[in-house]
Amino acid sequence: MTSASSQPLKKPLWIGTSWKMNKTIAEADAFCDVVRASPLASSRAPQLFVVPPFTVLDRVASALRGTSIMVGAQNVHWEDQGAWTGEISPVQVADCGASLVEIGHSERRTYFNETDETVGLKAAAAQRHGLIALICVGDSHSEHAAGTSDEAVSRQTRAALAKIDAGGAALPVIAYEPVWSIGEKGVPAEPDFVNAQHLVIKEAATAALGRDLPVLYGGSVSLANAVALASQPNVNGLFIGRAAWQADGFLAIAAEVGAACV
Ligand SMILES: O=C(COP(=O)(O)O)[C@@H](O)CO
To answer: Fewest C-beta in 10 Å: which of 66, 85, 126, 225?
Structure first.
């Protein structure tokens, strides 16, 4: 018999996926068709979200309209319009029907010179336009090896929230994404380590805004480890890459986590 203390905590949870630079229009349509047909599409327990590339943002938002699934963009500029070739503004993201926007993913910090300062500017721009900023923070391989993960995520969280209006609407959600855990060569983080890092992030957010923010975990999440991660007390959801790029995989994780933790 399972003791009450070993039962996963029941709580509101977010479960989402970013497709990164993947999927054609036809592939995006196929994903939406499957997800729309699931009972999870009309539930907010867990709250599902999908973050497609800009090429299908408007299309995915339209396809999932009328469901409870939120749709987000993978990046945003901090200005509303202007001579910023190749960039997409928060006005344009909202106009596509998105309600959230991912900011500061480690791939953007590493390959596209995203800095703590630009993450802060983008997060504030998102909030001005009623978009929930899904702010990614994470320790690098070297910071993890040096035992300075806490300082890294705390610094990134403070910078990201520096221009947020704590009393405003559309408060951000944070995703803890250890750089050493993301992608093909990633090592899944241990649930108790994740829980401890989430507490560090929550403390930094509370110091900055005077209130708690949801903190999701991302990095090599799979059907095998999802419940163990999501059931940690300081984990408010999962942000999934590869394991959720196929609709069946996404729904399987959402259903399992939902049954165990929501
Ligand atoms: O990068 C992420 C995790 O990717 P995995 O493929 O699950 O390691 C996260 O931002 C979701 O895209």
So the answer is: 85
